[in-house]
Amino acid sequence: MTYEFKLPDLGEGITSGEIKKWNVKKGDKVEEDDPIAEVETDKAVVELPAPVSGTVEDIKFKEGDMVPVGSVIAVIREEGEETKAPPPPQEKAPSPVQEKAIEKATAEAKEPEVKPPAEAVGRAPGKVPVLATPATRMLAKQLGVDIESIKGTGLGGRITDEDVKAASAKPAAKPAPAPAPAPTPAPAAPPAGPAGLEERIPLRGIRRTISDNLMRSLQHTAQVTVFDDADVTKLSELREQVNGARKDGVKVSYLAFTVKAVSAALRNHPVLNASIDDEKGEIVLKKYYNIGLAIDTPRGLMVAPVKDADRKSIVQISREIKELVELAESGKIGVEQLRGSTFTIANIGSIGGLFATPIINPPESAILEMQQIRDMPRVCDGNVCVRKVMNLSLTIDHRIIDGAEGQRFLNEVKGYLEDPAALLVNMP
């Protein structure tokens, strides 16, 4: 028998995915659990295992297609089944009544059955869901736009942020034959340079999510950045001692110490571990400390949290950071592993840089960026000395965090990094 393999539910709020890669082709034999495709959602890249063993009889979508959850993406003929042509039906002359029925059916069959994706996708309750990312759905909700009424201009009928904004700005009674806001990927003007020296890459998947989230963060929060530096000379010495003494191969990192310092400081500054519920007009103070790590990957920036960081040792945090980074860089990180951060840390120290203005990861209220550790001159007991100094950049949402409170939090983090003995007291 044949098995229709449907795109499974890939996580809460995810209604579609992009076929990034097929690992099989029509006619290939597969074993159950063999990875047959890679699908990219607005959260992560997910490998889809074969649900049964057999032969790939058909592939319904090509690489790059956007596919609604629940759609049949491949047909697999299970092992032991042979494809046989059905026996030819016995033919007999049709009666006059049958001839008229045949003519009617033939005329109906000539009508196009396949509608344009933008009309066919998710327009009736209980049907295939609207093609739109959770972020775009949230924008529609905030602007009071019925997303079901929007005709998507994105790939495969996907509804974009620009579609939502255009629908919001459009008068209700005015027909819109073809709204074309500036950002919409309409036919572009001819390139100024010589032909063939420009390349256009679709903005979708994780990169589109990054774009939407960061623009929404800037548009809906009042962001201000506080700058400071920390003398991490003692921390550097302690780190070398700890790593030199360990026999299990686990190396503690500056990032792990910073995660621990942040989780300790957040207890005394809860508004930096909060979010705003705009619908209810409430500030949500979170009494759990999931410190998100901004991870640079080939597919784009991902934020994976070290959950309950306040309850973990620095060695445990170092081990977890290593695992999360490896999973994210390989594209094997799960959707659940990318959820739940309450505060984010970005670490670009290994690349360079002095200061930055990091953008808050919504719906959080703050983000800390670590810069490169440098040997810098300092005054020690009246003399000039060389110390290891790390610059810190803290961006806060000024709607709920006053500048003074942001600096007090940063002072506490800085104190832990400069005096690691005080930090160790906060270890479980």
CATH topology of the domain at 207-426: Chloramphenicol Acetyltransferase
Instruction: Please give the largest β-sheet.
Output: 6 strands, mixed
Number of contiguous helices: 10
- Count of beta strands: 16
Mean pLDDT: 82
Level-1 CATH class name of the domain at 207-426: Alpha Beta
**Order of SSEs:** EEEEEEEEHHHHHEHHEEEEHEEEHH
As a percent range, the share of strand residues is: 25-35%
Cα radius of gyration in angstroms: 28 Å
Net shape: globular
Superfamily at the CATH H level of the domain at 207-426? Answer: Chloramphenicol acetyltransferase-like domain
Terminal residue distance: 57 Å
Stretches where pLDDT is under 50 for at least 5 consecutive residues are 104-128
* Name of the CATH architecture of the domain at 207-426: 2-Layer Sandwich
The helicity comes to: 25-40%
Spatial strand arrangement across the major sheet: 9-16-15-14-12-13
EC number: 2.3.1.12
Family: Belongs to the 2-oxoacid dehydrogenase family.
GO molecular function: dihydrolipoyllysine-residue acetyltransferase activity; lipoic acid binding
Pfam family, one: E3_binding
What does this protein structure show overall?
With 428 residues, the chain is of the alpha+beta class. Among the domains are: 2-77, OB fold (Dihydrolipoamide Acetyltransferase, E2P); 207-426, 2-Layer Sandwich (Chloramphenicol Acetyltransferase). It has ten helices and 16 strands. It has helices at 96-109, 117-120, 134-143, 161-169, 205-220, 233-245, 254-266, 314-330, 403-418, 420-425, and strands at residues 2-6, 16-22, 29-30, 35-40, 45-49, 54-59, 66-68, 72-78, 223-231, 274-277, 282-285, 291-297, 300-306, 343-347, 366-380, 383-397. Strands 9-16-15-14-12-13 form a six-stranded mixed β-sheet, with helices on both faces. α7 (254-266) crosses α9. The longest helix has 17 residues, at 314-330. The termini are far apart. Residues 104-128 have low confidence and may be disordered.
